[in-house]
Amino acid sequence: MPENYLPVLFQTIIAIGFAATVLILSVIVGRAARSTPTKNIAYECGMLPIGDGSSRFSVKFYLVAMLFVLFDIEVVFMYPWAVQFRDLVQTSGAPLLSMAGFAGILALAYVYALKKGALNWKS
């Protein structure tokens, strides 16, 4: 039984030895870099980091993003149903009615979001 674990032990020893060798060689061969204020600033696409790092977004942005995710997930639920539609309808009409109810509730939620002005950017 222990002989079955021998290859795993060898691989673990080789991995630890390789990691230790590379770390020791990097300390021996590598030169200590001089630290300057220019090297220590964050690199952000070539732009100098000036000002506040976080800008504020409107609440409308987050609301539209949440609505998009919500309606996108609903489409993910509809896709497998659409793939199996032919087989489902051959057995009975209940799957068609259940998806019609699901789509109806989804449409009501969309109309509600429109009435509340959730998708209106200017207000």
3D structure, described in words:
With 123 residues, the chain is mostly helical. The protein folds into 2 domains: 2-40; 59-115. It has 5 helices and no strands. It has helices at residues 6-29, 37-40, 59-83, 85-91, 94-115.
Notable characteristics:
flat
Number of domains in the coordinates?
A: 2
Mean pLDDT: 84
- What sequence of helices (H) and strands (E) makes up the elements? HHHHH
Largest sheet: none
SSE inventory with pairings:
Layout: H1 6-29, H2 37-40, H3 59-83, H4 85-91, H5 94-115
Task: Give a short synopsis of this structure.
The protein has 123 residues and is mainly alpha-helical.
